[in-house]
Design a protein that fits this description.
By secondary structure, the chain is an all-beta fold.
Amino acid sequence: MPDHTAILPGERFTKTWALQNAGSVPWTGRRLVRADDELVISLRNAHGQLQPLLDSHLDSLGRSVAVPTTLPGQLVELSVKFAAPLENCSVASIWRLEDAQGRPCFGARCFLQAMVTVIGG
């Protein structure tokens, strides 16, 4: 499901990301974790202040997904189930990879998102 896909209010769907371990260390004990409460998609206004682009988040049916052990060079697919809001809107959900201790694996700037536009039928 590409970002900005138009879906119906209340529709349930699955977003799948394909990630490749481009490093030299196996990924073990990692999780894909929802980070909506920490990361917000925003723009800087004419006064230099950040303004959120979206005022609500897309609800996932879980807050984390286990990442299977992924060897260097290997590709892994990670899927999250979502339910769209009941009202017409644009919403997003932001996710990141964390290690077994709950630390972001690639810093705050590296995240995955699911973004949809809900349009009544």
